[in-house]
Amino acid sequence: MTLESYIENLRSKPEHVKKRYAFWTSFGVSFMIFAFWLGSFSSWGSTSSSAVATVVNKAGSPGQSLIAGVGSFFGDLKNMVFGAKKVKYTSVEIAPGN
Question: Distance of CA 68 to CAs 59, 71, 77, 95, Å?
Answer without folding.
Answer: 10, 5, 14, 35
